[in-house]
User: Which sequence fits this backbone?
């Protein structure tokens, strides 16, 4: 089992990446980290992560997709021409798709949140984007709906990772 984790090349939220990585390691789940460019990515608090480029990714090689938030998500991920179709691919295959903090807007823009319950980082632009994407907004730290899990920010990182893993490993799908 392997998950694709997408981060911004700069200003991703450190703990939103660190918690899922630790949870995947503990659960024996493999992962690759990808970004809009290959190389070292830097978090908002100084964490470093090495990423492959999104154009190197073969989505069929993964069992789920997780998108990490932070200020860089809005700048680098919301409109990425490779990421948006990837989100739709995983969703169409009924594979888990997760996004935290500012990253759920990627899911809204990809069109997979229409009529789905979701949460997000509380900002006016995120609110507007999520509503435009048709999301049913729920004010909770972590929300899951039909193989989609969203979380509202860093404090929810551990619960977000745990919920994603439960969805990824569920046998009923």
Assistant:
């Amino acid at each position: 089992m392997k998950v694709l984790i997408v981060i911004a090349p700069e200003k991703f939220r450190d703990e939103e990446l660190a918690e899922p990585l630790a949870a995947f390691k503990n659960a024996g789940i493999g992962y690759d980290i990808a970004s809009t460019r290959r190389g070292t990515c830097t978090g908002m608090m100084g964490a470093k992560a090495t990423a492959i480029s999104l154009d190197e990714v073969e989505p069929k090689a993964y069992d789920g997709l997780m998108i990490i938030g932070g200020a860089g998500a809005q700048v680098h991920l919301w409109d990425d021409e490779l990421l948006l179709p990837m989100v739709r691919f995983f969703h169409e295959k009924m594979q888990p798709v997760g996004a935290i903090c500012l990253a759920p807007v990627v899911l809204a823009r990809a069109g997979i949140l229409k009529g789905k319950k979701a949460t997000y980082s509380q900002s006016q632009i995120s609110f507007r984007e999520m509503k435009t994407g048709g999301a049913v907004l729920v004010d909770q730290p972590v929300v899951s709906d039909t193989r989609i899990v969203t979380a509202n920010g860093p404090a929810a990182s551990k619960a977000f990772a745990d919920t994603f893993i439960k969805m990824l490993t569920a046998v009923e799908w």
Notes: The chain has one domain: 2-169.
